[in-house]
Amino acid sequence: MQSKTETIKNVKGNYYVSSFSWSMFQNILSAIIGFISTPLLLKYYGKTSFGILSIATACNGYMYLLDLGMNTGAVKFFSKWQTEGKMDLLKRVAGTNIAFYGFISLINIIGLVILALCGEHLFSVTHENFLLLRKCLLILAIFNLFSWYSSTFNQLLISSMQITFTMKVQSIINISKGLLIVAVFLFELTLQQYFFIFTLLVSLTVVPYVIRCKKSGLINSILPKFYWQDFKPVIVFSLSIFALSLFQMTATQSRPIILSIFSNDGAKEVADFRIIETIPTFIIMICGTFTGIFLPKVSEMIAKNSNEEISAFAYKWTKNTTIITNILTIPFILCAQEILAAYVGEEYRYLSVWMIIWCLTVLVQMHTTPGNALVLGYGKTKQLVVTTSISCCISIVINIVLTNHYGVGSAILAYFIYVLIVIGLYYLYYYKKLLNLSRIKMFFTFFKPTSIALLLFVVIKLIPSFGIETDGSRLPYLYICLIKSTLWLIPYVLLLLAFKIIDIRDFYKQ
Questions:
Q1: How far apart are the C-alpha atoms of 201 and 204, rounded to whole Å?
Q2: What's the pLDDT tens digit per position in 104-141?
């Protein structure tokens, strides 16, 4: 028979394996649905209408800043109180959280309605296109309450280690979104009809979340409560997280909004942005899964004050994360024109240079994921908040100034500058001052595998398109991508092994 300790270890192991597996599945499924739906909707509704749809979702997405960091703060305290057996306190605060999100939802709805009624001169679109945008904004306002209302129940489930359930629900919603795309063509849905059903599907997550929370004994009632004194520690902690996420989210979410306001043709530029956004978002979602894996281990190392273990983790996983990110990004950089031609058509090949720059930005950005986990583990985010705020403001100014010169490229270049400034902080301050790491060694753990990847990229780039005739068909482009990617990937892995950057025995053990 298993001992109690072994049983606990197995439960924890199953939790991490299950959570990781379902998170990966949900992220990949979401990326696939987004990847497929973009060219289909673009072709069916037209570039301008698709751009209007993107402007509406960008405006609503930015308003999620009103969360004020509660997604992190609530999960932290809910987990703590469940461990301590303080279920009455948890239920009081959860009910108050519902009231908090109700108030936030009201502000969000008012903001969307004001944009819908008075925002015509804010966006660079025609009157007819703004009327379409107005309908989309009003649809978002209708379902806004349900979207915010589900947040409390999602936090309760995650804090009680039921993230697998939330990922299963999200997966079902994503599959429903895929079926909706099919319905667009079968029933010839208008843009408004499609957007209404799409927003409804997203809002439906609240139903299974509420049912699960009640069955798990996490709530007694779905009505709001007003225990503000109990709620105070949660909101105070959350606001410290909000200070950081405010500028991070502004740097990312403001880009399409700025394009829609300051460019000559807002709908067109935002549509271009959404087209090339799919690939980098897919890479970030996959690599971003590591953050959830790193944090528990990092917290344990910091608690033990094991400097040797922290250093080994930082060097090893910066290298491993860099290799994985190279494998994910270089094929898309190598085949940027072919991918865009196969994805949305020959006429969008001109966007390849911006997609390449964006993928390079992701490559540079993601290699600091282990270092970022260590910084968050220590909780030393003051310098990061200051640097992020400055780099955010600089990137916004660059985006505005360059919009009419480079169109969608202004958003890509601005974000590249933002990432470089933030990463500079890690090398100039965090790696040495906080983590006591060698800056040179940290840089070379990134530089060695990346330099090999880029060298092979140059070699493969010189090879012509292998005599494959495209004839306007999209399938040959995929063949070219497959051949180029294979010719790059196999030598890359072999060279990593030859230079002992990776060890096959170590990989097998992991």
A1: 5
A2: 888 888 888 988 888 778 777 788 888 888 888 899 88
Distance from C-alpha of 79 to C-alpha of 139, rounded to nearest angstrom: 35
- pLDDT tens profile 386-416: 888 899 999 999 999 999 889 899 999 999 9
How long a stretch of residues is the chain?
510
Q: What angle do CA 470, 474, 477 make, to 5 degrees?
A: 65
Burial of 507 (0-12, 13-18, 19+ CB in 10 A): exposed
* Amino acid at residue number 83: T
Distance of CA 219 to the CA centre of its chain: 30
How far, in Å, CA of 23 to CA of 164, rounded?
A: 7
The label of the residue with tokens 């999200």 reads 170
* Digit-coded pLDDT (tens) for 220-230: 888 888 888 88
Q: What distances in angstroms separate CA 381 from CA 65, 240, 386, 443, 492, one per listed residue? A: 18, 9, 9, 21, 36
Burial (Cβ within 10 Å: 0-12, 13-18, ≥19) of residue 505? exposed
Alpha carbon 244 to chain centroid, angstroms: 16
**Are the beta carbons of 30 and 285 closer than 8 angstroms?**
yes
Q: pTM for the whole thing?
A: 0.70
Residue 29's contacts (CB-CB under 8 Å, 6 or more residues apart) are 171, 174, 175
Q: Where are the alpha helices (DSSP H) in 204-265?
A: 206-215, 228-262
Element (H, E) at 377: helix 369-378
- For residue 346, give the amino acid letter: E
What number of other Cβ atoms are within 10 A of residue 347's Cβ? 10
Neighbours of 321 (CB within 10 A): 22
Q: Which helix (H) or strand (E) holds 433?
A: none
* Separation CA 145–CA 140 (nearest Å): 9
The 3-state DSSP class for residue 260 equals: helix
Cβ-contact 252, 395 below 8 angstroms: no
Whether the Cβ atoms of residue 435 and residue 310 lie closer than 8 Å to each other: yes
